[in-house]
Amino acid sequence: xxxxxxxxxxxxxxxxxxxxxxxxxxxxxxxxxxxxxxxxxxxxxxxxxxxxxxxxxxxxxxxxxxxxxxxxxxxxxxxxxxxxxxxxxx
Length: 90
Prior knowledge:
Blueprint: H1 2-22, E1 26-29, H2 36-40, E2 50-53, H3 59-86
Antiparallel strand pairs: 1-2
Helix pairs in contact: 1-3
């Protein structure tokens, strides 16, 4: 179970790192709280608050390298553990 969790986290870090390589900035909009009128009339104006996220130059490369190292290490753990368990005299 832990192995699959770390593989998923590594894959997610690689995907986010690749995305950060291709974007310059991302605009994040915060929605207004829903009320009964908004379900009847969905043409309401969007919220005024928007945040712009600009990834630093080091972010894509660190996410890519950290994700790849995590993925590779999760595949090597069973091999290292098997050798440790089979070593005689310990």
